[in-house]
Design brief:
400 residues, alpha/beta, Aspartate Aminotransferase, domain 2, 15 strands, 37% helix
């Protein structure tokens, strides 16, 4: 008899986006003439930068000629891309890394989801709440049951408190999805110090790093002293360069980072992930890695930055628009997400329905990201300028 992995039966079905889709479908069927503005899903809308398209075309041509054709590449990523990542993302912030400390992959979803393969099942896991649902679900799938939720809400200014019980694995997503909030260097240092004291591992998801605008906000956890001993960092080209459909990301695992066997012996996490990644993954396509590399050319950098600026101007418009009508907002300064407190403590889904029916705008109910998201609502800055402005004009007419 074939047995299934029972852990999969313990995952709560995440109906968030399908529930949204159902309600939106019902609304559009009942109101076919109404123009909906979608500021719900966290996907980009702007096309790839012209430099990226050029790099894609050029590498496709390479694949067409016998002398330049590429078959399997190095499973861990081409050195041409990894060295550009180190030079452009880390060295300017005073962080030195070697090529074998970066692992190129097809996405941070896979990496944040798969990293648990090399970690013990009996680790105590701390996860901020609300947060990107992949961390929780993949830990449940792996059979980890001891999970600590770290509330992040306006009462604690979205700064999680250290857990009372010792945590072995700690997920930090900064800038945060969904709240759009960040931690300062001092606030992040508290976590690095905690991890060093307790021999814990920080899983630092920096998928939205490129949207940070304020000084003093760490772009990489390795800006904090000692972080290389305790942290893995996940980065992605998805939001930074519009690669959500093209797929390229990378994970940084410094060689200083150690895990421990049951008997307390040190084991290199870098070596374990190297083994895991090269065993279960056969590399990101050459043409995609060439496309990713191209964002580090002068033209590529400029174009990618223009698109980020475009989204962040949308974020400003949303944040200001909502504040002007008296709504309390968070995030939106160093992240493309605006997290708003629902008025009169309205439940997230009630506010969703109100905004959909009255203003014909789609957002995301905060409770879908965790219990502490109840009473909040997420809008994204990834829409068009025109729709963003129109959405804010509609909000002026919101009747509670
Ligand atoms: N991490 C966070 C916090 C995200 O919000 C997302 C995507 O929405 C991802 C990771 C996934 O990124 P990728 O497209 O690289 O898989």
């Amino acid at each position: 008899m074939i047995k299934v992995n029972d852990n999969f039966l313990k995952i709560q079905n995440n109906y968030l986006f399908s529930d949204i889709a159902k309600r939106v479908k019902a609304f559009t069927e009942a109101n076919p003439d109404k123009k909906l503005i979608r500021l719900g899903i966290g996907d980009v809308t702007k096309p790839l930068a012209p430099t990226v398209i050029k790099a894609l075309h050029a590498s496709v041509e390479e694949m067409a000629a016998g002398e330049t054709f590429k078959g399997y590449g190095p499973e861990l990523g081409y050195e041409f891309l990894i060295s550009k990542i180190i030079e452009n993302e880390f060295n300017p912030r005073g962080i030195e890394l070697s090529v074998d400390e970066i692992f190129v992959s097809d996405g941070s979803k896979s990496d944040t989801g798969n990293i648990g393969d090399i970690l013990g099942v009996d680790n105590v896991v701390a996860i901020t709440d609300p947060v990107y649902p992949v961390y929780l679900d993949t830990n449940i799938m792996a059979g980890r049951e001891d999970i600590i939720y770290l509330p992040c809400n306006k009462e604690n200014n979205f700064v999680p408190d250290l857990p009372e019980k010792k945590a072995d694995m700690i997920y930090l997503c900064l800038p945060n999805n969904p709240t759009g909030t960040v931690l300062t260097k001092e606030q992040l240092k508290v976590w690095v110090d905690y991890a060093r004291e307790n021999k814990s591992l920080i899983l630092f998801d920096a998928a939205y790093e490129a949207f940070i605008r304020e000084e003093g906000i760490p772009h990489s956890i390795y800006e904090i002293e000692g972080a290389k001993e305790v942290a893995i960092e996940f980065r992605s080209f998805s939001k930074k360069a519009g690669f959500t459909g093209t797929r390229c990301a990378y994970t940084v695992i410094p060689k200083e980072l150690m895990g421990y066997t049951k008997s307390g012996e040190e084991v290199s996490i870098n070596k374990l992930w190297n083994r895991r990644h090269s065993t279960k993954f056969n590399g990101v396509p050459y043409i995609v890695q060439k496309a990713a590399e191209s964002i580090y050319t002068e033209a590529g950098k400029k174009e990618v930055q223009e698109t980020i600026d475009y989204y962040m101007e949308n974020a400003r418009i949303i944040k200001e628009g909502l504040s002007e009508i008296g709504l309390e907002t968070f995030g939106g300064i160093n992240a493309p997400y605006i997290w708003l407190k629902t008025p009169n403590n309205m439940k997230s889904w009630d506010f969703f329905d109100l905004v959909l029916n009255q203003l014909n705008i789609v957002g995301t109910p905060g409770v879908g990201f965790g219990a502490n998201g109840e009473g909040y609502f997420r809008l994204t800055a990834f829409g068009s300028r025109e729709n963003t402005i129109e959405a804010m004009e509609r909000f002026i007419n919101l009747k509670l």
